[in-house]
């Protein structure tokens, strides 16, 4: 294993000790990496909707745990049996799962995550960051970005150039999904019931904005989409909300043979219209998060097209109040903690 000279023995971190309670700031030991792991000094970490679900006990997470599964930082130690060309000083992001014994163990769910100064990372799910990308911008890409990018690759694999893709729910995932879909050459529609979401759709970088923005609650929303697609319906849709009603409605917007990828995790079971599904020969695809290979393609698109998140940053010392920031009705985009 690489030498540990110069590394501290302890670090600052946030703990979730009890469901539905604020995070607590603690001092814990710096992780001791295995020979097949990397030690990453974290610079930024994202707060995701899934982190809120962990707080509410939706996944039955064993407590206490260090939350967050959107890490970005710098490698400070390389295990002696790590594959690849990893080296101290590499700027990296870490995807939100480890391939432990063939099982997916998710950071912040089954093992400690990124609201800390250091993280033990699996090199198989670690990716290099473009030099042009800040750590604060990189962090949300490790879950939100990789999730919606992976969904788009699955939804659009067989589509013709410039086919119409709908992104439903323009929040942390959706505003990235719009940019990714446009970077892949597709015509895009942004749908959201909230004015804040529709405003966010208009604030993406130049050249990556949607071709049509629709209020999904308007009575003529479906008619507008049908007219825009010359009566066919959309070729694919990625739904970035756990609203069962929104997912059910989106299915009806698809053209014959269309593909929908739902990304939300509702507390209740999905409900889809069997007639629409069967007679239009539709496809519903599941997606968890992109692979490391797919994420590298995402990073190339980010560097090439200037894809960026709408980011609000807070300091690690402010993490105990992060849920209040996230749940503020005026909050938009992604919430990122600056670690150091």
UniProtKB/TrEMBL annotation:
Q: Which domain of life is it from?
A: Eukaryota
Q: Where is the Enoyl reductase (ER) domain?
A: 6-337
Q: Does the keyword Zinc apply?
A: yes
* Gene3D superfamilies, sorted: Medium-chain alcohol dehydrogenases, catalytic domain, NAD(P)-binding Rossmann-like Domain
Q: Which GO terms describe its molecular function?
A: alcohol dehydrogenase (NAD+) activity; metal ion binding
What are the alphabetically sorted keywords of the record? Metal-binding, Oxidoreductase, Zinc
Q: Which GO terms describe its cellular component?
A: cytoplasm
**Required cofactor names:** Zn(2+)
Q: Which PANTHER family match?
A: ALCOHOL DEHYDROGENASE 1-RELATED, VACUOLAR PROTEIN SORTING-ASSOCIATED PROTEIN 11
Q: Which family does it belong to?
A: Belongs to the zinc-containing alcohol dehydrogenase family.
Q: What is this protein called?
A: Alcohol dehydrogenase GroES-like domain-containing protein
Provide the species name. Answer: Coniochaeta hoffmannii
């Amino acid at each position: 294993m690489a030498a540990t000279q110069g590394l501290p023995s302890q670090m600052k971190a946030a703990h979730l000790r009890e469901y539905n309670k604020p995070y607590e700031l603690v001092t814990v030991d710096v992780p001791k990496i295995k020979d097949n792991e990397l030690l990453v000094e974290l610079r930024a970490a994202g707060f995701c909707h899934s982190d809120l679900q962990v707080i509410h006990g939706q996944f039955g997470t064993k407590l206490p745990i260090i939350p967050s599964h959107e890490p970005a930082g710098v490698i400070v130690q390389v295990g002696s049996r790590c594959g690849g060309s990893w080296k101290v000083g590499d700027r990296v992001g870490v995807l939100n799962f480890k391939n432990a014994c063939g099982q997916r163990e998710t950071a912040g769910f089954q093992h400690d995550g990124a609201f800390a100064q250091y993280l033990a990372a699996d090199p198989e799910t670690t990716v290099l960051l473009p030099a042009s990308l800040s750590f604060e911008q990189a962090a949300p890409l490790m879950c939100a970005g990789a999730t919606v990018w992976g969904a788009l690759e699955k939804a659009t694999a067989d589509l013709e150039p410039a086919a119409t893709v709908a992104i439903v729910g323009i929040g942390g995932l959706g505003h990235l999904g719009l940019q990714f879909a446009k970077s892949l050459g597709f015509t895009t529609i942004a749908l959201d019931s909230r004015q804040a979401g529709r405003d966010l759709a208009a604030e993406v970088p130049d050249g990556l904005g949607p071709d049509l923005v629709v209020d999904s609650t308007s009575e003529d929303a479906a008619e507008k989409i049908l007219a825009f697609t010359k009566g066919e319906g959309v070729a694919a849709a990625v739904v970035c909300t756990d609203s069962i009603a929104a997912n059910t409605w989106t299915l009806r917007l698809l053209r014959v043979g269309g593909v929908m990828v739902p990304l939300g995790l509702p507390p209740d079971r999905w409900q889809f219209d069997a007639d629409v599904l069967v007679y239009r020969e539709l496809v519903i695809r599941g997606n968890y998060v992109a692979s490391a290979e797919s994420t590298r393609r995402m990073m190339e698109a980010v560097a090439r097209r200037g894809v960026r998140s709408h980011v609000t940053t807070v300091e690690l010392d402010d993490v105990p109040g992060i849920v209040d920031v996230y749940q503020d009705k005026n909050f938009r985009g992604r919430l990122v903690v600056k670690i150091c």
